[in-house]
Amino acid sequence: MDGVTQWVEFAVVLICAAAAVQDLFYREIGNSLSLAIVALFVVMPFSGVWAWASLPAVVGPAVAVFVVCAVLFVVGVLGGGDVKLLGATSLWITPGHVSAFLLSVALIGGLLSLLYLALRWMSPQRQQKQGAVDRFCPGDHERSKTIPYGVAIAAGALSMWCLGAMGPPMLARVG
């Protein structure tokens, strides 16, 4: 794999990590982070590192992920920032690994949900001692009911990067 591609893929993981931190503390993911991931994707074919022929194979599954997640947003399952981050990050996952990426995000999100349930069930005295609920469950009652799914998305992106499952399909790489 090309060294430039590895660094850009790592940059995508770092942007996802920034989105996770933002989601963890503020329960929102800025559009600029998802746009940065898309912009990095758009630049790669122009750099000559990726072949143009690989784009439909990568964009198709990413659009499908975005559309399904948009439906989940409409029914109140996912937040808008999560939808955009999942769609943008899916651009970077090799087509054969999109389902593994989504499965890892779902499993990590499930574990995160269990952690939040456990934090909410702690006695109020213990919550104050540990400060965990105040730190990671915002004081706003509505927002404290949400799970920062950006954390799961970033962990899923990191797992795909570690597996070498980011970038265009292997046969479509130039050089």
From TrEMBL:
GO MF term list: aspartic-type endopeptidase activity
Ribosomal protein found in the keyword field: no
Keyword Nucleus: no
Domain Prepilin type IV endopeptidase peptidase: 11-113
Segments crossing the lipid bilayer: 6-26, 33-53, 59-79, 100-119, 147-166
Topological type in the membrane: Multi-pass membrane protein
UniProt keyword annotations, A-Z: Cell membrane, Membrane, Transmembrane, Transmembrane helix
Cellular component GO terms, alphabetical: plasma membrane
Localization of this protein: Cell membrane
Protein name: Prepilin type IV endopeptidase peptidase domain-containing protein
Source organism (scientific name): Roseospira marina
